[in-house]
Amino acid sequence: MLSVSNLNVYYGDSHVIRDVSFELAAGETIAIMGRNGMGKTTLLKSLIGLLPVRSGKVALEGRELNGARTYQRVALGMGFVPQGRMIFPYLTVEENVLTGMENVADKTVPKWIYETFPVLEEMKARRGGNLSGGQQQQLAIARALVSNPKVLVLDEPTEGIQPSIIKDIARTLNRLKAERGFALLVSEQVLSFAMEVADRLLIIEKGEFVHEEKKGAVDTAKIHAYLTV
Amino acid sequence: MNLDMMAMQAFTGLSIFTILTLMALGLAIVFGLMGVINMAHGELMAMGAYTTYFTSLFFAKFLPGLFGIYFLVGIVLAFFVTFAFGWILERGLIRFLYKRPLDTMLATWGLSLILQQLYRQFINAKEVEVTTVSWLKGAWQVTEGVSLPLSRLFIIGLAVVTAIAVYMFLYRTRWGLRIRAVTQNRPMAGAAGINTERVDAFTFALGCGLAGIAGSSFTMLASTGPTTGQAYIVDTFIVVVFGGVESLLGTIASAFMIGQMQSWFEYSMSGSMARASILLLVIVVLYFRPNGLFATKVRRA
To answer: Which residue of chain A comes nearest to B198, CA vs CA?
Structure first.
């Protein structure tokens, strides 16, 4: 589905992502785990086109994405939920969802969105900026899902969200994945969340993948060692 | 002060309000929404005014029978000419400077000087007058002491129509949604699937087009010269900043307040004192409310 090969990303002279390669299969979920500053966000932003890539290849279903603008990547089937949600604070909840529907013929919020996130329907006339963190996260996910992505990229979805809601989000994502059939690439620091959604865990350190675990046989002690300073 | 005087003062205030609104609408989009400090905004108004001037010449020469409607044609043409110019300007210059506001200011200031010189060189160094169409000459005599100039009534109507059209466009159409999304968070709008480049060009062009409409309608009130734009630009910025950037209703309310103040202050003191007092008031308000009078309060993500 999504294949990344020998990706290198720089901030000026500093080499942030070093020769990263991985393959995300259709319907699969990969969680990229690592401490702050290890390159999780940089990697995901470069995949959606928000950061320029120095070298390497990103391809979605065999179509090369290098050089494509962010909105073109969305049209090709990438969905993105950034770190910190980045909902549009002055747009209403409903308008926020509608911004994701550029490539959809019917420009009304689909029913399944409100069925999945009933709180968004309740608050659809409110400004996005007045929602709580957890509600904004749901809104950001809804905005990315209405474009019917083939790959959904989530950057630290649990950051700043209370534990009970983290569990809800994990459950919702698993259900939506089964229903809508997208692949999921998520960066995470909360191991319990990652274990709940991911088929594979990749540990990133200093811009390189240093360790991989498969669902079922996860060595939690080892991952904790990577995640703690 | 008797009732007639009161009515006339209120009308003058209303007239200034609508003139300021027309001037500020374009800048509310370019500066307020996009954050682009376009110092050539006044010259775009002048461009709209010149477009109307040439339309009047064209009608006088080739379609004298239809001279009565030239002014309406002139307004529409002024919009499209400045819109097209704005589009080219955004694609050719502004888009490279979005992250460099200071450079934008310098570049557009340079552009304003170039435009002024072009007007001087190729149109006329002196001010040009536009013949007002006959149905806008004269005044509406409401009572014996109250007469309202038709040209000002027309501008009031035009401002109302334009403001409503802009509001409906921004808040009720898909294009408006795109514009508001892109102006709030450009990278994120792109990541949500919106073609930000096209939206940027369109938004900027729309703001320029509105400047064209304003300039066009002002040909009824004053003659047009190469430096006409300079006279408008300061007031325009004051209205937008006072109302609070990012707030269209704030811009209109601010135009209303400044218009009324100007009208009433000018009645009781000299013209320059009135202007100085207004500026002082604006400074005091901005000191206590740096985001302007009508900044929207939300939790910023």
So the answer is: A71
Beta carbons of A34 and A227 less than 8 angstroms apart: yes
Fill in the amino acid letter for B251.
Answer: T
Q: Could you tell me if residue B28 is inside a domain?
A: yes
Q: Which of A102, A128, A129 sits opposite B193 (nearest CB)?
A: A102
Q: Residue A128 and residue A139: Cα distance in Å, rounded?
A: 8
Q: What is the ipTM of this complex?
A: 0.91
A85 vs B contacts (CB less than 8 Å): 301
Query: What is d(CA B263, CA B9) in angstroms, rounded to the nearest whole number?
Result: 6
Distance from the first to the final alpha carbon of chain A: 34
- C-alpha B76/C-alpha B99 separation (Å) is 33
B191 to chain A, closest Cα gap in Å = 5
**Dihedrals φ, ψ of A78, to 5°?**
-100, 140
B98 within some domain: yes
Residue environment code for B33-69, b if the CB has 16+ CB neighbours within 10 A, otherwise e: bbebbbbbbbbbbbbbbbbbbbbbeebeeeeeeeeee
Any domain includes B256: no
Q: What is the CA radius of gyration of chain B?
A: 20
Contact B184 A91 (CB under 8 A): yes
- State how far the alpha carbon of A105 is from the alpha carbons of A85, A97, A110, B194, in Å: 25, 14, 12, 14
Which helix (H) or strand (E) segment holds residue A218: the answer is: none
How many domains, in total, are found in chain B?
1
Bridge partners (DSSP) of residue A63 are A60
Buried-exposed string A112-147: b where 16+ CB fall within 10 A, e elsewhere: ebbebbeebeebbeebbbebebbbbbbbbbbbbbbb
Distances (CA, A) of A145 to A33, A55, A148, A161: 23, 29, 5, 20
User: Residues 45 to 74 of A: which have CB under 8 A from any B CB?
Assistant: 48-50, 69-71, 74
Q: Which domain holds residue B187?
A: 10-126+147-232
Task: Per residue of chain B (301 residues), give pLDDT as tens.
Answer: 688 888 888 888 888 899 889 989 999 999 888 889 999 999 999 999 999 999 999 999 998 888 888 999 999 999 999 999 999 999 999 999 988 989 999 999 999 999 999 999 999 889 998 888 888 888 888 788 788 889 889 999 999 999 999 999 999 999 999 999 998 899 999 999 999 999 999 999 999 999 999 999 889 888 999 998 888 888 888 898 888 877 788 899 999 988 888 888 888 888 888 888 888 988 998 888 888 887 766 554 4
Return d(Cα A2, Cα A196) in angstroms, integer.
Answer: 22
The answer to whether position B266 is within a domain reads: no
Cβ atoms of B253 and B294 closer than 8 Å: yes
Burial class (CB in 10 A: 0-12, 13-18, 19+), B2: exposed
